[in-house]
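Notes from hallway chat w/ T.B., transcribed later so I don't forget. T.B. wanted the structure written out for a chain they're using in a teaching module, and asked if we could keep both sequence and structure tokens in one place. Agreed to drop them here.
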Amino acid sequence: MGTTRIFLIAISLFLLKATGAFAQHSIGLRGGFNLSSVKNFPLDGVEGHLTEGVTFGNYNALSFEIGLSERFAFQPEITYLQKGGKIGLADNDDYSFTVKLDYLEMPLLAKWRLGSGAFKGYLIAGPSFGYALTGETSLRADGLRRKDNIDFDSSFGPDGRKDNRFDFGFIGGGGIQYKVGPGSIVLDARAALDLNDFTLLQNDKPDGYKATRWEGISVSLGYQYEFGGR
């Protein structure tokens, strides 16, 4: 083994040891709520100016923080959350259409730690991959009330569309944490933006087509057990 190779190995071991000395890891649980809306949801036979509103849903997360240095970490998560949206007609107060779905998601986040001492902050950003477990729509119009389940199957409908249960989006946000015992109490807030289309088309997209996408803001509170580092 040459001198250069020995030197490179020694440097690598030193950097790994130095990084590990400051790299703090954690496992955490959080619970809270998600406020979401849907853009361009396809509605057949509805005429007029559509309005978009938000729905309130559950949000729960299991996080795994892997420290890379004193300031930076990689944080994969497993989250269960409810997404949805409310659609109305500007000239008809009696019309309301609501859609809600339960998603299992896996965000893969880069984390930048801020501050020192017992009270700290952080910023997060990264992609998120989701899978819709169940879904439901609710319609109220002219005294009629109706609920239907969303069926995720492999066949396209008569209109050449079907719902896409796979989701891909981007998350950005931040939070604060306060040291208590072997870990920290965490308050987290984040915004999510879809990058794919909830509606799949059998044929080419028509002129003026707009993708169906979710937008949301979630707030959660929890505790993370911390280990490693100094």
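Follow-up for T.B.: Confidence is low (pLDDT under 50) at residues 11-19. Might be a good example for the class.
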